Amino acid sequence: MKYKILRTIFSFVLLGSVLGALNDYWSGWFVLVVVVIYVCIILILSTNIRSNFFQHTLHSGGGKQGIGLSFDDGPHPNTLKILDVLDAYEVKALFFCIGKNIKQHPEIYREIIKRGHVVGNHTYSHTRKFGFLSTRAIIAEIQQCDRIATEVSGLSTRLFRPPFGVINPKVSRAILATGHTTVGWSVRPYDAITSSPGRIYDRITRNLNQGDLILLHDNIPQTVEVLEQLLVFLRQKNLAAIRPDHLLDIDAYT
Ligand SMILES: [Zn+2]
């Protein structure tokens, strides 16, 4: 709805600027400026999952007490170390898994579920071109991941997190078509691109609030160290780590 309004406003402004340029009220450059501004607005909104502009996405438990932990991009051999740390602190998390990784490590995918965590869909290939795919290609990415996940575990997840947090109109249409619930995050410490565990830990803990959902990556070795420190911090601050589907009050499986 918000997108339709933005598109309608853009169409009128573009039409007005084209007519103005044709009648020499202003130069053709103005038309270009209008288009560039529109493209920039769409890009900013598409890459900010928390904008909720194209798709309603769950980011936190609102006022609910507790913190949720989510891990993207597994399953991976490093996931087993993450699972051991979570077990040691008796914490359950949410893992958004990539279809081709599930295919490669089916036993690790089953282990995640066996240890009481929940799983979600993170597309089949996690391609860097995700934001440029057609609606049909995105649907295929989501369904292929679903198919492998169900074959391996017998469970059909409702939950979906788009790679890189990109939600544009095509991604939104694909999510609607596949019927998934989209889950974002409220805390992103960039553990996949930051080399210093201390900086990652600081980014998480400096402004952590009840209800927050943290995004981490289980395929990154240094995340194990950050996770241990974080779980100690949560205990010290009396913040309970709650399984994210409970924090968000949603059903993880169909
Ligand atoms: Zn990812």
What is the topological layout?
Elements lengths: L1 H21 L5 H19 L21 E7 L4 H10 L5 E4 L1 H6 L1 H9 L3 E4 L13 H19 L5 E2 L8 H10 L2 E2 L14 H9 L7 E5 L4 H15 L7 H4 L7
Parallel strand pairs: 1-2, 1-6, 2-3, 4-5
Helix pairs in contact: 1-2, 3-9, 6-7, 8-9
Zinc ion (ZN) binds next to β1.
Give the biggest beta sheet: 4 strands, parallel
Helix content: 40-55%
The CATH homologous superfamily of the largest domain is called: Glycoside hydrolase/deacetylase
State the end-to-end distance: 27 Å
What are the segments in which pLDDT stays under 50 over at least 5 consecutive residues?
Answer: none
Supply the number of structural domains: 2
Task: Give an overview in words.
With 254 residues, the protein is of the alpha/beta class. It has two domains: 2-46; 68-247, Glycoside hydrolase/deacetylase (TIM Barrel), CATH 3.20.20. Helices cover 48% and strands 9% of the residues. The strands form two sheets. The protein has a four-stranded parallel β-sheet. The protein binds zinc ion. Residues 72-73, 122, 126, 163 line the site of zinc ion (ZN).
Concise description?
The protein is of the alpha/beta class. It has 10 helices and 6 strands.
Pick out its properties:
binds zinc ion; 10 helices; four-stranded parallel β-sheet; 254 residues; 9% strand; alpha/beta; two-stranded parallel ribbon; TIM Barrel; 48% helix
